[in-house]
Design a protein that fits this description.
Helix content is about 45%, strand content about 15%. It has an eight-stranded mixed beta sheet with strand order 3-4-2-5-1-6-7-8, with helices on both faces. It has one domain: P-loop containing nucleotide triphosphate hydrolases (Rossmann fold). It is globular, with a radius of gyration of 17 Å. The model has no long low-confidence stretch (mean pLDDT about 95). Helix 1 packs across helix 12. Helix 8 links the parallel strand 6 and strand 7. The chain has about 260 residues and is an alpha/beta fold. The structure holds adenosine-5'-diphosphate and magnesium ion (MG). The site of adenosine-5'-diphosphate has 18 residues, from helix 1, strand 7 and helix 10.
Length: about 260
Amino acid sequence: MSGLRIFCVANQKGGVGKTTTTVNLAAGLALIGQRVLVVDLDPQGNATMGSGVDKRALENTVYDVLLESATIAEARQRSPKGGYDVLGANRELAGAEIELVKLERREKRLRQAVLAAGADYDFVLIDCPPSLSLLTLNGLCAAHGVIVPMQCEYFALEGLSDLVNTIKQVHANLNQDLAIIGLLRVMFDPRITLQQQVSEQLKAHFGDKVFETVIPRNVRLAEAPSYGQPGVVFDPASKGAVAFVEFAHEMVKRLG
Ligand code: ADP
Ligand code: MG
């Protein structure tokens, strides 16, 4: 495999596992020798904190990068345990939404910045906020593909159509590279019949766009962020960690 791959982890719903997917895929890829940058595009800064970087202590964040007052090389931090770099975010980023509107190339700011830092990485993973906002649009314009984490619940498919339509529009108007790389089933509990049924529906609808790897519901993944570590590093033997490392392998294999 060669060349930089830039992926958004997106789903307009909150609490579906975007951040958990971003930091654990990053740590999993790092573990198998890939050079990874995580871009936190959510003002909540969960990917930043979950990588062990204190969002309150940052001098420069993705906000400064979007407004072009800092480069990624200047603003990035090293995740102390994760084995990857982080372009952090905090509440300040919520203001970028308003400030960007009046600027030129407002959707392409992140793309430009990421490409400038591209030689340092094999993968850039962008953790999107739970909205289809100008921030998410910056993520989608920068990316080659979108990874969509989903819980196998009754309304999962319904919510997906808005995201799929947005991706189609961005593809048509702003970024012809953009594609859905795949749907990742997360927080999966095989004992729940409904989840199995929705999982089957997903496969029937989306075929090989559904990743083979399934991420189980696993409390160690939920505990890890409070230790400032991805679950993959915090408890490598846990089921959740093992699944994310498997997912990292699947990604690399898929990209050939
Ligand atoms: P999002 O970024 O989409 O809002 P998060 O990744 O923050 O979602 O996940 C929402 C909550 O669910 C968090 O508390 C997280 O720790 C927990 N969580 C995510 N994935 C799992 C999992 N596979 N097993 C158990 N808890 C999980
Ligand atoms: Mg999140």
